[in-house]
Structures
1.
Amino acid sequence: MTKQTIAKNTTYLTLAYIGQKILAFVYFVLIARFIGVEDLGKYTFALSFTTMFAVFIDFGLSSALIRESAKSFDKTSKYLSSILTSKSILAILSYLVVILVINLMGYPPITKNLVYLSGLLMMLDSFTLSFWGVFRGGQNLKYEAFSIVISQVVVVLSGAYVLLTHQSLMFLMLPLLAGGLFNFVYSSIMVRRKLNVRYCWKFDPEILKFLFKIALPFALIAIFSRIYGNIDSVLLSYLKGDAAVGFYQTAMKVPFALQFIPSAFAAAIFPAFSYYFVHDKAKLKFSFDKAMLLLTIFVVPISFGLLSLSDEVIPMLFGQQFINSVLTLKILVFGLIFVFLNFPLGALLNGCDKQVTNTKLVGLVMALNIILNLIFIPQYSYIGAAAVFLVCHALLFLISLFVARKIIPYSRRNLILVFAKTILSAVIMTIAVLYLKQSMNLVLVMVIGAIIYIGVLYLVKGFSRQDMTYLKQSMLRK
C-alpha cells in the first residue's frame, strides 16, 4: 500500500464524513423546526436508546474483521460468513431485548413504535458495518465514502418529503431506514463485485472463537462509549420527559457537529504514535505535544465563539421555541474542549500498549456519568445533564493526562502555556464579538472574530510555521 493510496483513502473518507455531517446537521435543523421540542425529544430518544444496544450486535467483531482481513485477506470469506451468521442471532436477541426493555419502562405507544423502527435501523447498520469492514481490511475506502454521502442524501430528500407533507412522527423514521437500507444493499453487493469476497450464512465455531477473543477489548470500549454517549438522553427522557431531551439534544448538535475533526486527526496520528513508541520516544513526545497544541488552538476559539453567540445561534437555527437550549449550549461548549483533547490522549494510550488502561478509564467515567446523572437530572433536568457531561469529560482528560505522563515526559509548563495563550486570544476575541454583534451581521462578526483570534495568537507566539507544517504532514501519514 503506497503513501499515495493511503492519502487518497484518507481523503475519500474525510471528505465523505464532512459532506455527511453537513447534510445531517441541516436535516436536524429542519426536523427541529418542523416538529417542535417534544416530538424532537421522542425522535432523538428512540435513536439514543437503540444506539446503546447496537454494540451488543456487533460486539467488536467488525473491528476484529478489519484487523484480521488486513493480515490475511484470503481468509476474509470465512471470517465474514461466520460474523454475519453470528450477528443474525445477536441481532434478533438484541431486538427482542429492546422491545422488552422499552415496554417495561412504560412509554406511550408512539415512543414504543419509534423505538421499534429505530431497532430495525440498528440491525441494518450492524450488518453494513461488517461489509465495510472488509473494504477497510482491504484498504479500499472509496466505495464506503460514496455510500456515506449517497445514503445521507437519501435520508435528507425522503425526510424533506415527510416533513413537507406533514406526515406523522412515526414516518420520520422511514427516511433513516431508507438510507440504512441503501447502505446495506450497496455494501453487500460491492463486497462481492469489487473484492470478490463470497459469503454465506454458516459459521465455523473455531473461527468464531478466534474472532470473539480478538473482539473482546474492542467490545468493552465500544459498550462503555455507547452507554456513556447516550445514557444522558435516555435518563432525561425517563426522568424528565420528551421536552427535556429536545432542549438537550438541540444544544448538543451545535458544537458536536465538529467532532469528526479530532476523530479524523486522531486516526491520522495513531499509527505514528504506535511506531514512535517502539522506535523513537523523542518523536513520540514531539508528535503528542504538537497534536495537543493544534487541537487546542482549533477548539478553544470555537468554544468561546459559541459561548458569545449562543443567544443568537440557537434562535436563528432552531427558532424561539428552543430558547431554553441556550444555557445548555453555554455549558456544553466548555465540554467540547475536553472532548477534542481526549482524542489524541486516547490515541496515545491505545498506540502505546495502554488499551486496557484506556478501557478502564472510559468504564470508570461511564459509571460516574450514570451516577451523577441520576443525582442531578431529577433536580436540574437538561442543565444538570450538561454539567455532568462537562465534569465527566474534564475528569477523563485529567486522568488520561496523568497516565500519559507515565508514557512520555511531556512538559506541563508548555501545556499550561498553550492553554494560557489560546484562552487569552479567545477572551480578547470574545470581547470584540460581544461588542460587534450588537450592530453587525453575525457572519461578518464571526469572520472578524476569527481574524482577531489568529492575530492575537500570532502576537503572543501561540503557533509557528513548524506547527502548520506538522499539521499538513500528520494528515497525510499512515
2.
Amino acid sequence: HLFEWRWADIAAECERFLGPNGVGGVQISPPNEHIVLNDPWRPWWQRYQPVGYNLCSRSGNENELRDMITRCNNVGVNIYVDAIINHMCGAGGGEGTHSSCGSWFSAGRKDFPSIPFTHLDFNDHKCRTGSGNIENYGDANQVRDCRLVGLLDLALEKDYVRGKVADFMNKLIDMGVAGFRVDACKHMWPGDLSAIYGRLHNLNTKWFNGASRPFIFQEVIDLGGEPITSREYSHLGRVTEFKYGAKLGGIFRKWNGEKLSYTKNWGEGWGFMPNGDALVFVDNHDNQRGHGAGGASIVSFWDSKLHKMAVSYMLAHPYGVTRVMSSFRWNRQIVNGKDQNDWMGPPSHGDGSTKSVPINADQTCGDGWVCEHRWHQIKNMIIFRNVVNGQPHSNWWDNKSNQVAFGRGNRGFIVFNNDDWNLDVTLNTGMPGGTYCDVISGQKEGRANS
C-alpha cells in the first residue's frame, strides 16, 4: 500500500523496484476528486471525502493515473484502487471550489453537480438517529443508514446512485486496474454492494485473461462484539481481517502473557475468518495512527524491529492474501495516549502539493517517506513468499516461549527469536541438504550471499 504516493512515483517504483522483486500489486490512495481542507492543513483523510468522480487528486491527474496503470501492468504489477463509495464529503464541508479538480459543490445542500448527485441521492430519510450520525454500533440499521462521522451517506439502494458508482469503477477497470479496496463496507448493505459489483466490467484484456473479474477486498472492521460481521461480506469478495494485526502485535509485544509459541495454529485456529476470505496486514493507514481498529497493540514502522519481525512472520505464513504497508513519517505528538497530529498529510511543499519520493544511494527513501517495502528484510521476505507459494506450513518448532521456527514444505524455512536470550538449537528444516542463504541478515548478490 503506497499510501499517499503520487502516480508518477508509483509508476517509477513499479519499474525500478516492485516488478523486479515480485510484488504482485499496489493499493493506491483514492484517485477521485476530493475536498481540499485548510483546517487542519491538507489532512490525509481529505482524500476519504469525495466531492466528485473526476480522476484528479492530490496524487495527480487522469493522464498521470493512466500512465501509471499502464506502466505498472507492463511490468506485472497490478493496481488496486481504494474506492470511496459509501459517502461524499462531510456535512460541514461548505460550498465552493475547494476541491482537487476545482469542481463546485455544496455540502450543505448535498449538491455535487460534477456527478451529479443531489439531495435526493442521500440516506437522510432512512436514518433514525437524532443527530443523523451513527450513534450506536449495536444497531445494524443505523450503521448502514446514518452518517459515518458526519460524512454524507449515499442512498446505494437507488438504481441511479448504483449506476454512477459503477460508472466510476468501470472507468478505472477499463483503464486497466485489477480491482478495488472498498472503503467502509460495514456501513453499506451487502445487497447494495452485490448489485454494484454485478455491474462491473471484466478486466481489460490487454493485460488480463478473457473473462477475469476484478479482485475485491472489502474494509470491514470486525473485532467481535457487534451485530455486523465480516461473514456477511465474504461471498462478495475478500474481507480485511483486522483481528490479525491486533493479535500479532500483542504477541510480538508480549502483552498479557501472549507468546509466539502459541501461534502454531495461527489463522483460523485463532478465530480468524476462513483462509480463502482473508486479506491480512500487520498495520494499515488508519490503525498505525490510532484510527480504525486494533488499538495500541498495532506494530508499525515506529517500532521498526518488531515491525520487521511481524511482517516477516506474516509473509512466511500461508494464511491470507498479504498487504505490506508503506508509510510516511509525521510529527507524532502523544498527549494522554492520543496523537494530536494523527491528521497530518504526506510530506508536502508549502503550497500543499505532495512531495516526490527520492531514492537514496542505499535504496531507502528520503523526505519523510518510510518505504517499509524497501527495507531489505521485508523485500527479501516478499521474494521468500513467492518462492514458497503453495507449500504447506511444516516442521514447526518452539521453545514454549518466544522462539519458534517453521518451514514451507521443502522450499523455505524461517526462525524467530523474540526472547531475551540466544537461540542455539539444531532443527529439522525439511529442506534438501546444503548451505542456504540467510535472507534476513543479508541477500543474494550474484551467485554469492552477502
3.
Amino acid sequence: VNPCGEQGLPPFGVCNLGALNLSAFVNDEGQMDWERLAETSKVAMRFLDNVIDANEYFIEENRQAQLGTRRTGLGTMGLADALIKMKVAYGSEASVPLIERIYTTIRDASYEASADIAVEKGSFPSFDGEKYLQGQFI
C-alpha cells in the first residue's frame, strides 16, 4: 500500500500501484511496440485488481475500504530512456505527440481491461452509476 499522495483517500483507503517500464517496449529498431504496450497495460490492470483479492490485510478497515472501491493506479517509469532509444529528444516538439500517444494507449487499454473485469466480476460495491455517467471517458 502506498500513500497515494496524488489523491485524497478516505480513512483507511487503499490504492494498489504498479508501473510499466516504457523503455522495455521500444524494440531493437527504435520503435515503440504499441500492441505490446496496450496488452501489457491490460494484464497489469488485471494483476492489480487480483492483488486486491489476494492481499492479506492486517487492518480490517483497510480490507473493507479496498474491497468496496478496488482502487488501483498504473503508472510508468523509463520515459526518458524510451525516448533516447527512439532517438527523440525529451521535451522536443517531436516528443509531444509521441508521449501523448504512449499515455493514451495506456489509458485506453487500462479502461478497457477495467470494463472487462467489471463484466466478469461485477461492479465494485461502492460503484456509483450516476456519477460514472457524468464522466468524460464513457
4.
Amino acid sequence: MHEGDSGTTETLTQAALVAELLKERKRDRRAGILKAAFFVVAILVYVWCYATLFNFGGEQSDVDITKPYANVVKITGTIGPNSETSFEAVAPLLKKAFADPIAKGVVLSINSPGGTPVQASLIHDLIVELKTQTHKPVIAVGEDMMTSGAYMIAVAADKLIVNRSTVTGSVGVISAGFGFSGLMDKLGIERRVATAGQSKNLLDPFSPQTDNGRAKQRELLTAIHGHFIDIVKAGRGERLKLDTPGLFEGTVWTGEDAVKIGVVDELGDLQHSAKKYIGVDQTVTMARRKPMLETLLSGAGLKVMSAVIDSSVQTPMATVQ
C-alpha cells in the first residue's frame, strides 16, 4: 500500500469515528430529552393522584360519614355567567348536595353582593325544585353580604340566618352604563348606525338617549323588579313586614334590623344553625372538582410538585468527623 493510500484510509477512519460519535451524542441527547419528559409527566401524574387522594379541590375529607352531617354549598362573589357562581357552576353542586342519601340537609353559605337576575333566578328555582323533590331542610347563612341576587337565592331556603353585621336585602334592579355622545361630538366623531326596526338602537351608548329609550329601559327594569318581588314574597311569606318603608326599593339593612322586618329569620352562624335546624354537628363543604391542569396549577398542586422535586433531587449530606 502506498503512503498516500494509508493517509487517505486514516482520514476516512477518523471521519467515520467522528460521524459515529456525533450519532451517539444525538442518541444520548434524545434519550436525555425523553427521560426529562418522562420525569415531568411522572411528576404531573403523581401530583394529580396525590391531590385527588387528599381531595384538593373536592369535598372536605375530615368528616365522619357514620354520623349525621349537612352538605354546604357556597355562593360567593358576583353571580353571573362564566363565573364560579354561575348557574352552570353551582347547579352540579346543588344536585349532588341534595342527592346525597346520608346528608340530612343543605346549607347555603352566602357571601355575595348579587349579580345578574337570570343567573340568580335559575339557582333559586333549582333549590326550590330540589327541596320539593327531596324534602330536605335548607337553611341560608349570610356572611358579609347577602344582597340583591344573592338574597333572591337565599329566600329559597326555609330559614335565613345572618350575622348582626351582615348587609342584606337590596330588593331592586339596576342597569348602569355610560353615554359617549357628547364626547364624540367634541372629538368630531360621527356615529353611523343602520337598523331595521325603530327600537333596535334604543340603548346604544354612542347615540343620544331618547325618551323612547328611557321608557323602554324603565319598562324592562320594572318587569325584572316585579319578578324579584314575587320571588321574595313567595319565599318569605307572612314573615315579611310589608309596610316597611323601602322594603322593595333596593334598601339594605344590617342583620339586627333585617330580623325585625322579616327579611331574615335570626342572628347566628353556620355550625349552630346547622345543629338547630338540621340536627347535625358536622358539615361537608361541596366543591367543584377541578380539572387536572387547574389542580396542578393551584397552590396545593404547586406545593406538592415542589415537594416531589425536592425529594427526587435530594442527595446525602457530607459529614465531617
